[in-house]
Specification:
The chain has about 280 residues and is an alpha/beta fold. The protein folds into two domains: about 5-145, Rossmann fold (3-Layer(aba) Sandwich), CATH 3.40.50.620; about 155-275, Rossmann fold, CATH 3.40.50. It has eight helices and ten strands. A ten-stranded mixed β-sheet has the order 3-2-1-4-5-10-9-6-7-8, with helices on both faces. Strand 4 (about 110), helix 4 (about 125-135) and strand 5 (about 140-145) form a beta-alpha-beta unit. It is elongated. Belongs to the universal stress protein A family.
Length: about 280
């Protein structure tokens, strides 16, 4: 089975961290990597008169950078089953990704937490937040800046059991099978007992994970959910946190959480965001 992985890039160091992670994650797999750059006009010299020639030169220079990035990644791979493609787009990032998903059989997008101009006070850059919020047909794996690759052997899956999980879990199952990982389901208890709906969803989740190594962990609701997850990551040496992006879910608070405001979920490990199906 050949995997098709989309790698949006702005040529930043954080972007390269994500690319490097992708190459190692699929090091032993047949895989096609698509390097996507959504070009936007920049005017570093504050020119008042912009010609089409000037714009064409900028675009050609960016295409060369994209080609060089592809060559760099190719040089890092020793797998003859790895293929590399470039996608240069003049459309906005979201539209560019949507077109790529339509044109190619992409199953996962991998990108950095923030780009070259990301504000330091926020955990996630605006581009990453937009991709997670607006790309609802493809899972997104977000890789922290300067992350040192660790084979994903432990994957945390926080859940409140308020949703029925079906095919939403396929990306999680895919990574689990790919690296013989263990899924650690973690539930933060807010009430003494689960509701009838929660119990049903729990039983169905257990059934869905029956063929995968997994465990169910319960955590008391002391402190913020973000902090509880952070401590869980440290306790079990978690390599990836996976969540389904439901509306009004924990993900929303994480994405917009200013680091300087309080101790929150700081992405020290990759973060797999799986889309809600039929949203």
């Amino acid at each position: 089975m050949r995997h098709h992985i989309l790698l949006p890039t702005d040529f930043s160091d954080n972007s390269w961290s994500a690319i490097s992670y992708a190459l190692k994650l699929y090091a032993d797999e047949a895989c096609t990597f698509y390097f996507l750059h959504a070009w936007t006009f920049s005017n570093p010299s504050s020119r008042t008169y912009i010609t089409s020639t000037f714009i064409n030169i900028q675009q050609e220079e960016t295409k060369e950078k994209l080609s060089a990035l592809k060559d760099k990644a190719q040089g890092k791979s020793s797998n003859t089953e790895h293929e590399f493609e470039t996608i240069f787009s003049t459309q906005p990032l979201i539209r560019s990704i949507e077109k790529a998903l339509n044109d190619f059989p992409i199953s996962l997008a991998i990108m950095g937490t923030k780009g070259a101009t990301g504000a330091k006070e926020f955990i996630f850059g605006s581009n990453t937040v937009n991709v997670i919020n607006k790309i609802r047909v493809c899972p997104v794996l977000v890789v922290p800046d300067a992350y040192t690759y660790a084979k994903p052997k432990q994957i945390a899956f926080p859940t409140d059991f308020n949703h029925f999980y079906g095919d939403e879990l396929l990306p999680l199952m895919h990574l689990t099978k790919l690296h013989d990982a263990k899924i650690r389901v973690v539930h933060i208890t807010e009430k003494d007992h689960l509701t009838e709906k929660q119990n049903y969803n729990l039983s169905m989740l257990k059934a869905n994970l029956e063929d995968y190594p997994s465990s169910l962990e319960w955590r008391p609701n002391f402190g913020t959910k973000e902090l509880i997850i952070k401590e869980f990551i440290q306790e079990f040496d978690i390599n990836i946190v996976a969540m389904v992006n439901y509306k009004h879910s924990l993900i929303e608070s994480i994405l917009n959480e200013p680091v300087i405001q309080k101790i929150g979920y700081h992405p020290v490990i990759p973060f797999l965001v799986m889309p809600e199906l039929n949203a």
